Amino acid sequence: MSDPTQPAPADPPEWPPIAPAGTSTSTAATPRLAGPDEGSQRWVPPVDGACPDGYPVKANDNSGIYHVPGGRSYERTVPEKGRRFLDGLEYLKRRHKMVGDVDGLGLALRMGICEPSDSFTPSKRLVDMMVDEGFKADLEAKGRRYGLVLDIGGYYKNVVTLAPSLHISNEEIDLAIELLDQLMTRVARLAGHA
Q1: At what angle do helices 170-190 and 74-95 cross, to 10 degrees?
Q2: How many angstroms separate the CA atoms of 131 and 107, rounded?
Q3: How far apart are the C-alpha atoms of 61 and 71, rounded to whole Å?
């Protein structure tokens, strides 16, 4: 049911709001201020070569890239953070014989837990110990106590799968590696492999 006291919604703007590079339209060629009858959709001239604050979508005519406030450049940050996390998992593999294969793409990562005798034979027993010890929430880092909830997968249920938020910080990645290191050190000792 429509409210007669409210103005009718304007037609949605065409997308993309700026014509791709190489095409010419008056909108793409000349920035303009919207008139009062054109709703909240506005084009404004740049201020010192940049889009002014207070406008919800920022666009680059030449690249066709559109930015939303608070948006992230996932095409750059996900591979960087994924590489950092994978480097940390490879560090754990060098430190702990129970770590078999580590692999990942972006922030979808995995770490196989194996028998320390050969670093190959899947070890659900060690994974179960890791899960139990992680639930105790008595790992310490930077003066705080932490617990770990591990996502376990793989055919033999021996693979720790890691799929953190795309917004994970480098400090949080480092913390995760530190806590996994403590957890694996403890499990190796409890299992008699230390």
Answers
A1: 20
A2: 21
A3: 18
Domain ranges of the chain: 9-71, 74-190
- Quote the CA–CA distance of 159 and 67 in Å, as a whole number: 37
The DSSP string of 6-73 is SPPPPPPPPSSSSPPTT---HHHHS--PPPGGGTT------BTTBPPTT-S-EEETTTTEEE-TT---
Give yes or no for a cis peptide into 16 (omega within 30° of 0).
yes
* 136-173 pLDDT, tens digit each: 999 999 999 999 999 999 999 999 999 999 999 999 99
Q: What are phi and psi of 144, to 5 degrees?
A: -125, 160
CATH no. for 74-190: 3.90.1150.10
- Strand, coil or helix: what is 151? strand
Sequence-distant (6+) residues with CB within 8 A of 161 are 108, 109, 110, 151, 152, 153, 154
Query: Tens digits of per-residue pLDDT, 15-27?
Result: 445 555 555 544 4
d(CA 78, CA 164): 10
